[in-house]
Amino acid sequence: MNIAVFIKRTTFHEGYGGLETQNQTLCEGLSGKGHRVTVFSPKYELEQDFASKNGVDYVFVECSYRSLAGLGHLDKNNWENKSFFAYKIAHDEKAFDIVLAQSSAGLGLLRRKSDLTVPVISISHGTTVGEYKTLLQSIKSFGDVIRLIPNTAYMLLNFFIRQRLFVLKSNKVIAVSNVVKQKLVEETFVSKGRITVIHNGVDESKILVKASYPIKDTLTLLFSSKVIKSKGIGDLIEALNDERLNNVEVEVLGGGEDIEFFTEVSRKKGLDSRVHFRNKIPYEQYLSRIKESDVLVIPSRRIEGFPMTAPEAMFAGLPVIGSDLGGTPEGIVDGGTGFVYKSGDISALRDAIEKFLDQPTLIESMGKSGRSKAQQEFGLDAMLNKYERVMKEVTQ
Q1: How many other CB atoms sit within 10 Å of the CB of residue 94?
Q2: CA distance 28 to 5
Q3: CA-based angle 37:43:45, to the nearest 5?
Q4: What pLDDT, on the 0 to 100 scale, is given for residue 94?
Q5: Which H/E stretch holds residue 51?
Q6: DSSP state of 330
Q7: What is the helix (H) or strand (E) element at residue 30, kind and residue range?
Q8: Which residues, other chains included, contact 313 with Cβ-Cβ below 8 Å and sequence gap of 6+?
């Protein structure tokens, strides 16, 4: 198939995260299976208009993106309009068979559904209400409250217009977790049959696996995420502020707007020798370093769709401790491949960490069980096969 993919940012852009990495994995995987893949994205800070990497072509569109009024389709220079015309030029040269749109990035095409000759599948990683709840958690000052006003207006437009448009006008919606599917049904009243759940898959061949599990007196936790309040890094630091966990260290791999704030919090609590902020590192380097830790911790206070860090760590042979929000628990067998605790319950998080200190053999047994689960459910081929089935379904 000739596939057009629409996304707000790519791994070529600054500050990319898990969604962009997942999109790259998906696109390169589809290309590897013989499909032709072209990714359309706003240009933003990039200088080039086109790029090719690992069998995937990229088109970077010069445009504005977010409209203060939420009416971007009325602005001829907005992404919704410019993306459609960029698509049309490419489609006229070699017709596309299908469009994959990450969240609402395909709205420009969906608003012109009557002009399209190909089906559109939208991929949802979360919902408007979930993102707004996360925004509320990020408030730290009066200035944040003032900035919340336009964001609230934008959220309402997303909830009543944009989210409904991309969900209801798509031929099919793929949700990255069962929780996301449930929330989409509740917020848009879409039929459950229109949504298919496909968990994010991981290319296992790029991940180095733990070769052994030596019994140690120390425990190394891995936190791999943006360093922002809603990701729960503050809860993890607070959990370590207990003498029972004096032999626990944390590797923090990720940048973010709150990294200086939490570095200072860690220092004031006397934990700066045990909480190591390494900033963001290249993705390939990260995949090779996972195995150097003992346990992955996802202490998020936000409704995650399905964080890729969980299956990545499981493939490396690490158990996972995760909060009970969003799709995170769908990657963990509580008591089998790790532990699930109530988000925000620092005492419960501390207890989960302490279990690995008191019973270090759990690291190996749970780590190997997690790897087995990942191989069965979260491999790249499993994800690609499911995507191909959905694409075949809507193009027949």
Answers
A1: 9
A2: 12
A3: 135
A4: 96
A5: strand 50-53
A6: G
A7: helix 18-32
A8: 222, 224, 290, 296, 320, 370
Query: Could you give the 3-state DSSP secondary structure of residue 246?
Result: coil
How many CB atoms sit inside 10 A of residue 379's CB? 18
d(CA 105, CA 396): 24
SS3 call for 167: helix
113-151 per-residue burial string, b: 16 or more CB within 10 A, e: under 16: eeebebbbbbbbbbbbbbbbbbbebbeeeeeeeeebeee
Alpha helices (H) in 217-258, listed in sequence order:
233-240
Token pair of 171 as six digits: 């031929």
For residue 273, which amino acid is it?
S
Task: Provide CB contacts within 8 A for 303, sequence distance 6+.
Answer: 126, 127, 130, 133, 134, 179, 183, 325, 326
Nearest Cα residue to 73 out of 103, 114, 112: 112
Tell me how far CA of residue 377 lies from CA of 4, 260, 314, 348, in angstroms: 26, 37, 11, 28
- pTM of the entire structure? 0.85
| Look-up of token digits 């990683």 | 125
Q: What is the DSSP letter of 141?
A: S
DSSP strand pairing (36-42 vs 2-6): parallel
Q: Is 371 exposed, middle or buried (0-12, 13-18, 19+ CB in 10 A)?
A: buried
Nearest partner of 218 among 248, 251, 250, 252, judged by Cα: 248
Task: Give strand pairing partners of 58.
Answer: 39, 51
8 Å CB contact between 184 and 175: yes
Query: In the 8-state DSSP scheme, what is residue 368?
Result: H
Mean pLDDT of the chain: 90
Beta pairing class for 195-197 and 275-277: unpaired
- d(CA 214, CA 16) in angstroms, rounded, equals 35
Residue-wise pLDDT tens digits, 276-294: 999 888 888 999 999 999 9
pLDDT in tens, 224-253: 999 999 999 999 999 999 999 999 999 999
The secondary element (H helix, E strand) that includes residue 346 is helix 346-358
Pairing of strands 338-341, 120-124: unpaired
- Residue among 35, 315, 322, 327 nearest 202 (CA): 315
Tell me which of 34-38, 124-128, 318-322 is least confident. Answer: 124-128
The letter for the amino acid at 218 is: T
Question: Any idea how long the chain is?
Answer: 396
Q: 172: exposed, middle or buried (C-beta count within 10 Å: 0-12, 13-18, 19+)?
A: middle
Query: Helical H runs in 41-127?
Result: 79-93, 107-110
